[in-house]
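If your schedule permits, I should be very grateful for your opinion on a structural question. Kindly check, if you would, that the fold set down in the tokens agrees with what the sequence suggests. Thank you for your consideration; the sequence and its tokens are set out here:
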Amino acid sequence: DDAPADLLRAVLDMGGVHTKSEDVELVCRRRHHLLPIFICNLVVELHWTIVSPTGPVRVDAARLWDRARPATIAGVDVQALSPEDLLLHLSLHTSYHASLGTGLRPFCDIALTTQHFRKEMDWPQVAERAREWGASLYVGLTFHLVRSVLGTEVPDDVVGRLVPGGLDQRILETARECLLAQSGYGRWMPPRPFFSEWHAESFADKVKLPWKRVFLSRDEMAAFYPASRSSRHLYRYYALRLRDVIRIFVSYTLGQGRRM
């Protein structure tokens, strides 16, 4: 549970310079990485998972390590993401985190990844894992764009499994415009409402979404509040979770208002 803080101390002990002091425990609840650290003329960004813990996409970081494979970078033995996890990470980074605002470069990375691992990529696992993470819509949009814009080979059945009902033509046109203009749909609408008609089909489903964001399972709560794992009074941490969710929502709403 203290791994991010320990890792930060280790990097700082190596001579790293942190540009801004942060409450690591609070950052772990809200983000998936710390602010950049400068060390030996390099910019280091410490991650403990690949997506923010406050959004609809949920990734089990421990499983990422279980599936990792040995690799060598600059003569150093390291652990690298499996081909399927790498492809999903690249897809989420451009369509979920960056809101399609970083242009074609990440799509070229996706195209090269699919080409490099074309003989070993387990496409059914890609679709199934995206579904488990709650990322099917973002990954499906990414695959559609990389096929239509760059001509990258992505199996039809994979896109079909990710978005069984197909992609709304208006959303596709908007997404393509955001991609080519490098504007990012997050500038005028947040990522979740961008897909709101898919995430919740009925009013009842929409009402359930905030409930699901607050009342997480004990394991999920432990990821945000480590002390809750062994606590007999989990309801106290749900009160803390409610407070944090409200703070994040208010902060996001005010940020959108300032940009507008």
Observations:
- The radius of gyration is 19 Å.
- The longest strand covers residues 69-73.
